[in-house]
């Protein structure tokens, strides 16, 4: 069924329409400086398409919550745990409810983690619930930044991965991304490049005008026109809108944002003496509040007096250990239970392409289900066990000196690449064929074989191994410190794990 969404007026006063079905398949990128009318455009698109498709709005400023009163959207407050947000997102896809994820009140890192968890829950929904959803992300440069900022690398990687899944792999799962950004230069290129439809608004910086002109297929000299666009006017291009650049004036909307542009207002006519009383005289309500005054720090203790106290101080008696109220934990039993949980996670075909944060939450839940005794592993210990578990070492190899030496060598590497190193080391110790690039790429959590080859080059530069090729073009990896080497293996061989996963799907 073809549905045309009316955005406003185009060239010559004709109606500018968007083919909704085509938009769901090809995605949309909106760009414009603050005040150019991006939020107004998104609101027009959401209002016009509300009767036809389920919608999900990632709202960092709480501007779109007013859609709930007119169109029945459910407002989801993001001040929840990541697990709660993932489960809510899964139920949203199951019951086809339009929602607004309100991120207002959270700091930037919390917004990134909450949006990543929510988008991840929608992306991981069961196949039976892959209904079409229009996913609108306002201020997308916050969730898919082009460069590292003040947030932690873990939060940035988690958020960027969720946005990449939405724009790159979301179409088959029914997720159609509509992302809006103030600056194209601040938006990750791999996220922006997946959009086939564009609406470019007013912008002033040369780098953003040049990128906008490139995306629209315009000459660099024509990029100057983006400076002259009025508020609410955009240049559109894409299979869902127009095959040639088309100027569009966005139409009116039925709802309004809670925050509006500032308007000039006359100052109050207050006499200077009255203004001073308003500032310096406390109101009756303020007088009831307790006054908090800064406490002066105690004077410093002279060095001689401090040394004298240290000399005269007596050692405290050793505390008497109280009898334990809890039964002692069998460490071997606990370690075996942790290994069993880790095997369950590693055997999941999708585990290699999920973020560490999501796998860690899954690990904690499985530990509670299996009633693993003792305190839960922290994130660092979990990453280490995950890397070892992905290597797939049996008891005979794990008890050998060569494997223990391999574990010590892996500790010199970062957490995200230890698993790749251990997989190759295990193959060498067992004299198995060298793993292919596809296998190593999956262990690294990527679909790019070239990244796997770069990792082997990096290990070789660190002096951990030596890579050579035999006369048949097969790869052999030698570990001088382990006195072991892999059997010849085809670097271009397919990953059997990927074939198994595709067959399951």
From TrEMBL:
User: How is this protein named in the record?
Assistant: AAA+ ATPase domain-containing protein
User: Residue limits of the AAA+ ATPase domain?
Assistant: 24-292
Spans annotated as Disordered = 485-505
Q: What is the lineage of its organism?
A: Bacteria, Pseudomonadati, Pseudomonadota, Alphaproteobacteria, Hyphomicrobiales
Identify the InterPro entries for this entry: AAA+_ATPase (IPR003593), ATPase_Atu1862_pred (IPR014588), HerA-like (IPR008571), HerA_central (IPR002789), P-loop_NTPase (IPR027417)
Q: Which Pfam families match?
A: DUF87 (PF01935)
Source organism superkingdom: Bacteria
